[in-house]
Design goal:
Blueprint (H helix, E strand, L loop, with lengths): L6 E7 L6 E9 L5 E9 L9 H25 L2
Antiparallel strand pairs: 1-2, 2-3
Length: 78
């Protein structure tokens, strides 16, 4: 059950080159702040598994960049 003021969303990717799941949870943190938790889990199959360490680093870098861009956008509109 979702509490008041909490946003919880997830996306399933059941097929394709990178099946997996991404989820996002936004929770209030004081009167004018919130906390974002994003989780991503992908299943790399077959010969693509050798790329897993590289893929993990790229995904982590891109996620940090996207989260910082979202933060700047939200803070500039407050």
């Amino acid at each position: 059950m979702t509490q008041a003021g909490v946003f919880d969303s997830s996306v399933e990717i059941p097929e394709g080159a990178l099946p997996g799941r991404a989820s996002y949870l936004v929770e209030p943190n004081g009167d004018d702040r919130c906390h974002l938790t994003s989780t991503m889990q992908f299943n790399i199959n077959g010969w693509m598994r050798i790329t897993e360490p590289l893929f993990a680093r790229v995904l982590e870098r891109d996620s940090r960049r996207d989260e910082q861009a979202l933060k700047r956008h939200l803070e500039s509109n407050s």
